[in-house]
Specification:
- The structure holds two protein chains of two kinds.
- By secondary structure, chain A is an all-beta fold.
- Helix content of chain A is 0%, strand content 50%.
- Chain B is mostly beta strands.
- Chain B is built from no helices and eleven strands.
- Classes of the chains: A mainly beta, B mainly beta.
Chain lengths: 109, 125
């Protein structure tokens, strides 16, 4: 059981806006912004968001936000190449470790 | 731009020790701005943080693996390593080395800013 809770699966059509969520508690998501990672098939993960910032090279259709102990990743204008597993992570100051969500499988219909 | 590359055996026998090395280029293990981590994705499961090392040699491990894990660094070779002892089939996974960053502020963020390509380790006799 993962420390952070994510939807198991989300789907959307090309051009649609989708939002993935990541729920933790006051020791992790409530105190730290999260990182979001995209993993396509069994390739290496790629960082797509940290906090509400985009790493260099990531399309601006990706955005991040947070409210309380729930962080969100929004993809505006979904593209076929966005189909992947998405993970969130945060530092947990109580456990003194990095915690991950269980991942969301995003399907582009 | 920093690059990380994992290396090590792809097959380990049960009860033995898994050993992997991460070679860092384009960045320095001695950097005070980053941490160096190991993360894995077991077959059919999600990402799992194994632990990290800081330039000083300070380490932090996932409590679920702590009794079996050792992460060490060699700044002269710009490499850091993972050892996981007494492995079982449950340790079969893709293993990734990574560079972490912490941005401090009103709401700090801790995240991975660079990933290795990963290496598959199978535990089997």
């Amino acid at each position: 059981q993962s420390a952070l809770t994510q939807e198991a699966s989300v789907s959307g059509t090309v051009g649609q806006k989708v939002t993935l969520s990541c729920t933790g508690n006051s020791d992790n998501v409530g105190s730290y912004d999260v990182g979001w990672y995209q993993q396509i098939s069994h390739g290496a993960p790629k960082t797509v968001i940290f906090g509400n910032s985009l790493p260099s090279g990531i399309p601006d259709r990706f955005s991040g936000s947070k409210s309380g102990t729930t962080a969100s990743l929004t993809i505006s204008g979904l593209q076929p190449e966005d189909e992947a597993d998405y993970y969130c992570s945060a530092w947990d100051y109580s456990l003194n470790v990095v915690v991950f969500g269980g991942g969301t499988k995003l399907s582009v219909l | 731009q920093v690059q990380l590359q994992e290396s090590g055996p792809g097959l380990v026998k049960p009860s033995q020790t898994l050993s992997l090395t991460c070679t860092v280029s384009g960045g320095s293990l001695s950097s005070g701005s980053h941490y160096w981590s190991w993360i894995r994705r077991p077959a059919g499961k999600g990402l799992e943080w194994i632990g990290r090392i800081y330039r000083s040699g300070e380490t932090i491990y996932n409590p679920s693996l702590k009794s079996r894990v050792t992460i060490s660094g060699d700044t002269s070779k710009n490499q850091f390593s993972l050892k996981l002892s007494f492995v079982t089939a449950a340790d079969t996974a893709d293993y990734y080395c990574a560079r972490d960053a912490m941005i401090r502020g009103v709401t700090p963020v801790y995240y991975v800013d660079a990933w290795g390509k990963g290496t598959t380790v199978t535990v089997s006799s």
